[in-house]
């Protein structure tokens, strides 16, 4: 019995050592996000069967939730998405909106919501869900500085994700990044949407995204549009910005052959 335990312990230590080294980046199965700059930095896209952390910058939990929903949409494709939510998250940021997820391009019929009374239950439920290879992705939604979500818990989730090939997306609001075995770590803020069509009330979702941890490459920061119909991230769409009218008592700057924007002429907005 002792030899079996020692063998199991040695095997687990070996797997943990491999997790904490860089490993083979090219051996990972990846899904392109659609944003050229981010995909290039990620060497082809987001790694599947791994743990990825998304942190909300300041009071930007709504933006972080929208971004992680986009990641889940890219990774889970047409498979079920399990969203494990700490009850305190709903008290602080409100309930998930099925209409909102549908507008983002996700199919609410494929969403399995699980509410956990505490962080320990949320971690156990997430590990159980990751063990099911029929699932496309699992979102672990935890609010605040949860002491239970330490390096050991992160290792367990990473091992479970690697064993099944199911991607784990960890959403953290009102929390500070701590050491973990996550493949990537993102900090998300809301960005300004371009003007929408006259018949549309809302602009397209736009995120200010900073990649602060990348186990197999460099980091960076981008403005990323989310295309709801294509379920795809993209680079910002260029659009003409309104220009302030020239003062009536001055000649037009173009007629004077000066710069496009003089000292008293600035872009509006």
Report on the structure:
It is a single chain. With 269 residues, the chain is an alpha/beta fold. The chain has two domains: 208 residues, Rossmann fold, CATH 3.40.50.300; 30 residues, no CATH class. 30% of the residues lie in helices and 23% in strands. The strands form two sheets. The chain has a nine-stranded mixed beta sheet with strand order 5-4-6-7-3-8-9-10-11, sandwiched between helices. It has a two-stranded antiparallel ribbon with strand order 1-2. Strand 10 and strand 11 form a beta hairpin. Helix 6 runs parallel beside helix 7.
Any idea what the shape is? Answer: globular
CATH names the topology of the largest domain as: Rossmann fold
Beta strands, count: 11
- Which stretches are poorly predicted, pLDDT < 50 over at least 5 residues? 240-248, 250-269
Order of helices and strands: HEHEEHEHHEHEHEEEEE
Please outline what is shown here:
With about 270 residues, this protein is an alpha/beta fold. It has helices spanning about 1-20, 35-40, 60-75, 85-95, 100-105, 120-130, 150-165; strands at about 30, 45, 50-55, 80-85, 110-115, 135-145, 165-175, 185-190, 205-215, 220-225, 230-235.
Give a quick set of tags describing it.
269 residues, single chain, Rossmann fold, two-stranded antiparallel ribbon, 11 strands
SSE blueprint:
Layout: H1 2-20, E1 30-31, H2 36-41, E2 46-47, E3 51-56, H3 61-76, E4 81-86, H4 87-93, H5 98-103, E5 111-116, H6 119-130, E6 137-143, H7 151-164, E7 167-173, E8 184-190, E9 206-214, E10 220-227, E11 232-234
Parallel strand pairs: 3-7, 3-8, 4-5, 4-6, 6-7
Antiparallel strand pairs: 1-2, 8-9, 9-10, 10-11
Helix pairs in contact: 6-7
């Amino acid at each position: 019995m002792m030899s079996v335990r020692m063998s199991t312990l040695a095997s687990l230590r070996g797997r943990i050592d491999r997790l904490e080294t860089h490993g083979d980046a090219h051996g990972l199965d990846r899904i392109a996000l659609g944003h050229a700059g981010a995909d290039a930095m990620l060497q082809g896209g987001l790694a599947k069967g791994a743990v990825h952390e998304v942190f909300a910058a300041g009071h930007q939990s709504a933006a972080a939730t929208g971004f992680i929903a986009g990641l889940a949409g890219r990774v889970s494709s047409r498979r079920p998405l399990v969203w494990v939510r700490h009850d305190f998250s709903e008290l602080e940021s409100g309930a998930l909106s099925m209409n909102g997820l549908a507008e983002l391009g996700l199919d609410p019929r494929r969403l399995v919501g699980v509410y956990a009374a505490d962080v320990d239950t949320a971690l156990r439920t997430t590990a159980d869900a990751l063990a099911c290879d029929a699932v496309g992705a699992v979102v672990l939604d935890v609010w605040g500085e949860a002491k239970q979500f330490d390096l050991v818990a992160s290792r367990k989730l990473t091992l479970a994700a690697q064993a099944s090939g199911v991607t784990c997306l960890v959403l953290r609001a009102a929390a500070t990044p701590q050491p973990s075995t996550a493949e990537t770590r993102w900090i998300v803020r809301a960005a300004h949407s371009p003007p929408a069509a006259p018949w549309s009330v809302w602009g397209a979702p736009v995120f200010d995204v900073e990649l602060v941890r990348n186990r197999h490459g460099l980091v960076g920061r981008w403005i990323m549009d989310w295309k709801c119909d294509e379920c795809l991230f993209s680079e910002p769409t260029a659009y003409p910005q309104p220009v302030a009218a020239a003062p009536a008592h001055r000649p037009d700057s173009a007629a004077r052959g000066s710069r496009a924007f003089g000292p008293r002429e600035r872009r509006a907005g």
